[in-house]
Amino acid sequence: MMNVLILVFAHLLADYPLQGEFLATMKGKNHIVLFSHAGIWTGVIATATYLIGFDITFIDIASLFVVHAIADYLKAKPVGFYKKLDGLKGGLLIDQGIHLAQIIVLLAYKGGLV
């Protein structure tokens, strides 16, 4: 359980204060900004995962990055069902749920949920 809490804290750090207003505003308008945010988030999660004792592979990093970038793009643009959702309510809940699912899947894959 502590592994989950550590990575949730790392997620909150990377997805809120380390994102900042510029990245949050511009990631739906500029792919470099989107990839920068996804890279920061991925780096923080990968580093925290490594520091709590799990090996991180290129596939782990690529998966974290791609899923995060796609989820944020869909919400920031907005695309698909996100068009019908309030960005600060339903849209935010789905976006954050995806990111938390990424953490759970990573830890499950690494054997860190036990």
Give a description of the structure:
The chain has 114 residues and is mainly α. Helix content is 72%, strand content 0%. Helix 3 crosses helix 4 and helix 4 packs antiparallel against helix 5. The longest helix has 21 residues. The protein is globular, with a radius of gyration of 14 Å. The model has no long low-confidence stretch (mean pLDDT 92).
Unreliable parts:
none
- Helix count, per DSSP? 5
Over the alpha carbons, how many angstroms does the gyration radius reach?
14 Å
Q: Output the structural class.
A: mainly alpha
Q: What's the mean pLDDT score?
A: 92
The geometry reads as: globular
Strand content: under 5%
Give the SSE order as H and E letters.
HHHHH
Give the CA-CA distance, first to last residue.
8 Å
How would you sum up the major sheet?
A: none
Helix percent reads over 70%
How many beta-strand segments? 0
Features:
72% helix, 114 residues, single chain, mainly alpha
Give a quick summary of the entry:
This protein is mostly helical and 114 residues long.
Task: Note the topology.
Layout: H1 2-15, H2 20-26, H3 31-51, H4 58-76, H5 90-110
Helix pairs in contact: 1-3, 1-5, 3-4, 4-5
